[in-house]
């Protein structure tokens, strides 16, 4: 397929979904509700980090178990966009319900968050599976980079919009405003996702379903495991991705809590820190997205994993807020580039006719299941030792292990690029 068959407007509309959904990852998973849960909902328990990590791990387990079913539903139906809409609505509704979570409502808060995060993670399979359909193979890196770049731009936007609501912190007079930020995040997601659903089209003439999606999904999961034997580089990459993306997710999930609990950041300072990190994440995702199309995604991931190792070691030793801001600059670059390059390498390695099936493993089993151990480990170490520093150092294992395994992935980049 030649470049003229692809529409820039379609790619832009697809990337707007990244812009929209980042409101959840920032205002719920990373900054807003994460801090609210620790400081208000679970205050005084001494186990806030553990409960928060447990909630995230449970939601990831559910998402991982659903991923084979979602992959089958995507490939065997003409309703990929409808499934994406369903999980997006689940996330939006769950996010808005967080407004009613107040002090001491630990279990309800965890349950609502789990539902919202399942919706957030479940939509990934359908969204990412559109990538091979909207961009030519040799532009996967650039399209993926634009998507993540839009996501980090969305993060800056939602932080700016939410700032008036959360700048007052957790004073009794401002708690209502703080909870309003969750409604704002849900509305932001809903509004900016509209162009995606208006522009993207489900392809016809795919497959005919003869069994329920549940049975189809797990039959295909078994078949996909068998197929991985035919794609050794893909299997090795998924194993590497399983490790290092767990480290990325853990850093994202606990960074605000680390800044608040270990370095004494105020809520406003946490926001400023994420503005810094998200700004460099935009540069990292876009620049590395372009460079990936020139030197290949594997080399890009190698570089970002080395940056990540340096970030984790530095985070263990830093003592001042200024030092943490500097580390945040490099963390932002690493977040944007590692996620963008990973999706590009996956799109390159996966057989196009089974893209959703393998992306189900990428987003679900490799992505979601990997996010179980990191947050749970961090939360347990932090809660039971009283030291977030030792907890953050444990993340180093995931990045080092992922880097070692990635060296076993063989990619004939120049040859594949030339074929396009």
**Whole-number tally of structural domains:** 1
- CATH C-level: Mainly Alpha
Q: Any idea what the shape is?
A: globular
Query: How widely separated are the two ends?
Result: 8 Å
Helix coverage percent of residues? over 70%
Q: Helix segment count?
A: 18
Bin the strand percentage. under 5%
Number of strands: 0
CATH topology descriptor: Growth Hormone, Chain: A
Order of helices and strands: HHHHHHHHHHHHHHHHHH
- CATH homologous superfamily name? MFS general substrate transporter like domains
Helix/strand/pairing category: mainly alpha
- Kindly provide the radius of gyration, computed on alpha-carbon positions and rounded to a whole number of angstroms: 20 Å
Fill in the keyword field for this structure.
about 80% helix, 18 helices, disordered C terminus, single chain, Growth Hormone, Chain: A, about 425 residues, mainly alpha, disordered N terminus
Give an account of the 3D structure.
The termini are close together. The chain is globular. Helices cover 80% and strands 0% of the residues. The longest helix has 31 residues, at 232-262. The protein has a single domain (3-202, 210-419), classed as MFS general substrate transporter like domains (Growth Hormone, Chain: A). With 420 residues, it is an all-alpha fold. Helix 1 runs parallel beside helix 2. It has helices at residues 8-30, 32-41, 48-75, 80-97, 106-128, 131-134, 140-166, 175-199, 213-228, 232-262, 267-295, 297-317, 321-349, 355-368, 370-385, 388-393, 396-406, 413-419.
